[in-house]
Amino acid sequence: MSMHLDVPTLSLLALFGLAGGIGITAVGPGGVLPTIGMFLLTGLSPAGVAGTAIATHVATGALGTAAYTRSGQLREAVTRRTATVLAVAALVGTPLGVLLNTLVSGRGFGMLLACAVTVTGVLVWVRERRTPVAGSEPVSVPRTLIALVGFGVAVAAGLFGLGGPMLSVPLLVVCGLPVLSALAAAQAQSVVIAAIGTVGYVLHGSVDWGLVALVGVPELVGVIVGWRIAHAVPARRLKYALVGTLLALAPYLAFHS
Known about the structure:
This protein has 257 residues and is an all-alpha fold. The protein has helices at 7-26, 32-41, 46-70, 77-101, 106-130, 143-160, 165-174, 179-203, 209-232, 236-255. The chain is globular, with a radius of gyration of 16 Å.
């Protein structure tokens, strides 16, 4: 690793990775947790935080995509179409997000991250209220709307080092897509976001591969655990716990130096 971190800090970072992986496939907005952990605990620059965090999502996105293909969601035509539109939008939005990251200061990054975390918490809460209304079968959402969601999510993901499900899942559910279909499509988009974002940050020399391994391996374990949670048990309590955690962390992120 490029910096010396003590054992408690390393353990906390690994736990952020595990919790993030569970959140990614169980409720969607989990990929922000590794970013938060690195921002609060490592002292990395904004580019270092985002670049290292987004690199962990290459493997988690691929594993999540495989998991939701196995369980059938990504074999459905509507879900595959949604995933394709999201992925194409990510080709444009992610590089823009990486570029924007190079223009913000550490304090500005914290403020923007706090805003993103707050928006995510609200979206998860809105999604939870909408879920009983939405059906379990995939529905057709206008491609233009999906493309706008995909572009906006990709810009934010490139800026903060996210995989994409953090924002795309609640937004897609609000648009009318069932939760499992939204989770599946978001995993596929996250592969594109993470791959392009990683290349961009590598070119800037902003990826700490030691931290990628430390956070990414537990995150992969969490992806499998979260996928099982999403299919096996009601995740309402987990969702509300995530909302509470995000909203509690937002003020601290905003004023963290």
